[in-house]
Model the fold of this input.
Amino acid sequence: MSDGTSPRAAKIIVIANQKGGVGKTTTAINLGAALAEIGQKTLIVDLDPQGNASTGLGIALSDRTVTTYDLLLEDASLENVYQKTHREELFVAPSTTDLSSADIELVSNERRSFLLHDALRRPEVTKLGFDHILIDCPPSLNLLTINAMVAAHSLLVPLQSEFFALEGLSQLMLTLREVRQSANPSLRIEGVVLTMFDARNNLSLQVEQDAREALGELVFNTRIPRNVRISEAPSFAQTVLEYDTRSKGSAAYRALAEEMIARSVRASD
Ligand code: ADP
Ligand code: MG
Done:
């Protein structure tokens, strides 16, 4: 949070994993809601042409007139792209399927990997007063995900507690290395969060053990449980924190927000 004198630049976190259905969007929405709840002004940037984060946050398709497509390809400023959600302190820059053509439209653009960086890191964005910007990525390591990794300060990886979860991670880490070498040397790993965790399931426990062995401290202590309230919430255009504030899912995303903040305080000591 700012100290009240000069606004500080937002911390930009890319939420990525090239596998679909691992909890990226769910984590973007609900971690965002949990951060907003503790007074952190938070923006979700929907960088997936499927627009699930936009839908889950209640932005009707007819209200998505200016989108992240315009932010990347039409030089629109963030100020004109983002919208309020019905949660205080939580905002979204929505997307539509228009964004799916970005890869092709950008082949000949020399700054094609830097477009989101240029849009989010300009000084005017600081004046908007965001504490956190969370970027929800498509399920692929395409140019959109690269843009997000180039724009971000850190990478948050949702890891679904299922077979082969860690195999997919090595490909993501290769991309991380490439991005560090070419465009964003200071990109850190914010952490890996286990999603859809089921403590009664041996496979979940095995994935957790393997992840902690391989990645150590990078794995958040907080695990997001498999919780039906989490999966029901988006169809009511609500985050789980509003849909069922006392659910295990809400508690887990609150704990994740707290753990993330506590870690970054420690890191900056
Ligand atoms: P991604 O964005 O990585 O493709 P999603 O966040 O859309 O993944 O999640 C995929 C599906 O799993 C969605 O239907 C979502 O509601 C469900 N889901 C995600 N996390 C949980 C959870 N912790 N418990 C139950 N269902 C979940
Ligand atoms: Mg998604």
About this structure: The longest strand covers residues 188-197. The beta strands are 11-15, 42-46, 83-84, 90-93, 132-136, 154-160, 188-197, 219-225. The two ends are 15 Å apart (CA to CA).
